[in-house]
Automatic annotation (TrEMBL):
Name this protein carries in UniProt: Programmed cell death protein 10
Topology in the lipid bilayer: Peripheral membrane protein
GO cellular component annotations of the record: FAR/SIN/STRIPAK complex; Golgi membrane; plasma membrane
Listed InterPro entries: PDC10_dimerisation_sf, PDCD10, PDCD10_N
Primary residence: membrane
Subcellular localization(s) per the UniProt record: Cell membrane; Cytoplasm; Golgi apparatus membrane
An example molecular function term from Gene Ontology annotations: protein kinase binding
Organism of provenance: Frankliniella fusca
Pfam family, one: PDCD10_N
Protein family: Belongs to the PDCD10 family.
Domain Programmed cell death protein 10 dimerisation intervals: 30-87
GO BP term, pick one: regulation of Golgi organization
Sorted UniProt keywords: Angiogenesis, Apoptosis, Cell membrane, Cytoplasm, Golgi apparatus, Membrane
Length: 233
């Protein structure tokens, strides 16, 4: 038991060290920690389910429960496995790529079930923005292509904000509307940070900061959808 506690503490410390490499400031949530379960772990469990349904469902339930009780647990688990195996992987880039391949079933908590046009439009616009952001690792080395992608991202951000405005009327109560407005302000703040990160990239040529900023935008997009989901479903 003592050995297990020491191993757990070591993995936790390594996880903290890795989170420090995602350019977070005090009080911020790491976007990578929130995305490891849906974009990395769940697709693996879906493949396992074809061979052993019971094992897959047991693992899915256990990991989801652990992640809910201890946010970042699956991230620390993956980092621990990578370090034990001495894998050298840019987890920010990897998670960003995997987000592009995630299915609706993998991202079920980030989709709205209401059938009204406003909710379905928010689903479409949030998915569209995330799909474009996930192309960045493949396109960032081609300046002309990347510049066109940046224009697409700017347009997708505007369309997402328009969709949020349309769904606001469905939010019950002033408190719920204020919470959604706060989510929208946070999203705008991270959009501006993304723009500043791009300027730094064109000066310095460091892609990892762009990957991290892209993940933050995805994370903030998900938080908007979760806010609407919690208030309307």
């Amino acid at each position: 038991m003592v050995h297990e506690l020491k191993v757990g503490a070591a993995l936790g410390q390594r996880g903290e060290n890795n989170r420090k490499n995602t350019n977070m400031t005090m009080g911020e949530e790491s976007p990578v920690t929130s995305l490891v379960l849906p974009v990395l772990i769940r697709p693996i469990l879906s493949k396992l389910e074809r061979r052993d349904v019971a094992a897959s469902q047991t693992l899915r339930a256990a990991l989801s429960k652990a992640e809910m009780a201890h946010p970042g647990f699956t991230y620390d688990l993956v980092v621990g496995i990578m370090q034990r195996g001495e894998f050298s992987v840019n987890l920010n880039e990897t998670v960003l790529r995997l987000q592009g391949a995630a299915t609706e079933a993998d991202m079920v908590e980030y989709r709205l079930n209401r059938s009204e046009d406003a909710f379905q439009e928010l689903n479409k616009k949030s998915a569209a923005l995330k799909k474009i952001l996930c192309r960045i690792p493949d396109e960032i080395t081609d300046r002309q292509t990347f510049l066109e992608t940046i224009k697409e991202i700017a347009s997708a951000i505007k369309k997402l904000l328009d969709a949020v405005n349309e769904v606001t009327g469905f939010i019950p109560g002033s408190e719920g509307k204020q919470q959604l407005e706060q989510r929208k302000r946070d999203f705008v703040r991270y959009s501006k940070r993304f723009s500043n990160t791009l300027k730094e990239f064109f000066r310095e040529g460091e892609p990892n900061a762009v990957f991290v900023s892209s993940l933050y935008l995805i994370h903030q997009t998900n938080k908007i959808v979760v806010c609407v989901k919690n208030k309307c479903e």
